[in-house]
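Exercise 4. Each item below gives a protein and its sequence. For each, produce the structure-token representation.

Item: DNA-directed RNA polymerase subunit (Aplosporella prunicola CBS 121167).
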Amino acid sequence: MFLTTTISDLIQIKPEEFEKSSIQAIKDAIHVKYANKVIQEVGLCICLRDILKSSEGLIGHGTGIVNVNVEFRLVVFRPFKGEIIEGKISGSNPQGINVQLDFFDDIFVPGPVNLFEGVKFNNAESVWVWTTETGDELFFDMEERVRLRVEAEVWTDLSPQAPLIAGANGSGGENGEGGEGSEERRSPYCVVASMQQAGLGPTLWWEE
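Answer:
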């Protein structure tokens, strides 16, 4: 679930940080730049593990900012395919179930394909229900602790794009399909999971 990755980057130390020791100022700058950020094809940065090496600082002309080339290691979140993890149900809709961890919200279990055979979505209660072979109804309730299997990961590049010109190619404009109101929240990193094997799903089901 957690990996370490080595990064080389130019770290900038602002003048107001000069009262700190050099190593502490570098650590704080790395934390501000990387903590809780997604690096494409690497994972979600959790924290700095250690600093491997750093150069002498060079003061930028006219800014007072010190530029330091630093090589360091970060702890990142990136579960591997087939890994079993635990989370909490944060939402359900006809497309599937959203699951979150304490530090990561973008886990999705498509339904019904990645759920147990015999599951159906109850529109009245907005919850997925599994009817077992014995006829019992088991619910995937909100806030329920669940165990799931990682199946895939989806990366989305959210780098800034050039603004669209209103009316170009028949799109854009205040009421067009390209308008702000139609833009959906996108995540740079999403984990796709399943709950369709014995032992998976709400942990309460499998407690003896």
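Check: Residues 145 and 204 are 8 Å apart (CA to CA).
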